[in-house]
Amino acid sequence: MPTAVTPPPPSDLAAPEPAPQPAPQAAPPPGGRGAAPRPQVSRAAWLRLALLLAILAAAAGSLLLWSPTALLDGGLSAGTPWYTRAPLFVAVYAVGTTAFFPRPALNAAAGLLLGVREGTALAVLGTALGAALAFWLCRRLGREALRPHLRGRLLLALDRRFSEQGFRSVFLLRLLPGLPFQAGNVGAAFSGVRFLPFVTATALGAAPLTAVYVTAAATAREPGSAGFLLSAGAIVLLGLVSLVSAVRGVLRRRRAAMG
User: Fold this and answer.
1) Nearest-angstrom CA–CA distance, 26 and 28
2) What is the distance between the alpha carbons of residues 97 and 140, in angstroms, rounded to a whole number?
3) Positive or negative CA dihedral for 40, 142, 189, 187?
4) Three-state DSSP class for 167?
5) Which residues contact 13 (CB under 8 A, 6 or more apart)?
6) SS3 for 177-208, per residue?
7) What's the CA gap between 214 and 216, in Å, rounded?
8) How many Å apart are CA 4 and CA 103, to the nearest integer?
């Protein structure tokens, strides 16, 4: 009998595929699950920030040794020529604002020592120069270290507004009487606003309030004069506007937190 031949296995039967291996999962970012990685800041940037803080602290501490208003009162007189009086006043005003000396006191000194016209003009010039000095220091020494850590919806919205509408934002900022002058300088320096629009908007926006304080001081010896009454009324009105703005801001934040 013929021997039965076993047929070979079919060639089209494929070998079983290996089971798929799960893809390796990426390690979670530092700082907790889902947290964004912290921005890296160079050591040089932190050193510059430390230098900025040291300069500002030294400037503020120097007020224990000298007073801008006393220096102006002793260095300015009716016989001092204008080409000496003007640079001295502007320089002392600018350094005083950088050292966190209150601007209303400097404006009052301008009115008492120089009168309304010259005092207002030199006070506005000193305001612009002091803002420019603080802006330059904060931007060159502190912005690189602190800007990457800008967080929060409000801060990001303010930064975007200052970057896109720099002149308008700074101008409106200087019109508000209740906002500290130095805080505006630091905040603008850490934002994206450019230098020239910042200085120009500071000079134009600070001029009305500066003129009010200078006029009030220049006419203080005549409390019944029209200039004194108008300037005093303007100061009271601006104070009320600042108070109302502050209360509205607090109420708005509360409603946002509750909603």
Assistant:
1) 6
2) 19
3) positive
4) helix
5) none
6) CCCCHHHHHHHHHHCCCCHHHHHHHHHHHHHH
7) 5
8) 114
Ranges of residues in the chain with a pLDDT under 70 are 1-39, 77-79, 148-159, 221-254, 256-259
CB 199 within 8 A of CB 132: yes
**In this structure, how many other beta carbons lie within 10 angstroms of the beta carbon of residue 161?**
15
Tokens of 60: 């503020």
The DSSP secondary structure of 61-113, one letter per residue, reads: HGGGT--HHHHHHHH--TTS-HHHHHHHHHHHHHHHHHTT--HHHHHHHHHHH
Region class of 167: left (phi > 0), else alpha (psi between -120 and 50), else beta: alpha
Cα–Cα distance for residue pair 57/164, rounded to 1 Å: 32
**Could you tell me which residues come within 8 angstroms of residue 142 by beta carbon, excluding any fewer than 6 positions away?**
48, 49, 52, 53, 189, 190
Residue 85 near residue 76 (C-beta atoms within 8 A): yes
Q: φ, ψ for residue 4 (rounded to 5)?
A: -75, 135
Q: Which two tokens stand for residue 48?
A: 């510059």
The residue among 238, 247, 6, 51 whose CA lies nearest residue 145 is 51
DSSP state of 40: P
User: DSSP letter at 147?
Assistant: G
Alpha-carbon distance values, 94 to 30, 82, 169 (Å): 44, 18, 22
Provide Rg for the chain, Cα atoms: 32
Classify residue 115 as exposed, middle or buried by CB count within 10 Å of its CB (0-12, 13-18, 19+): middle
Cα separation values, 237 from 129, 147, 242, 257, Å: 28, 36, 9, 30
**What's the number of CA atoms in the CB half-sphere (13 Å) around residue 215?**
17
Tokens of 19: 């089971």
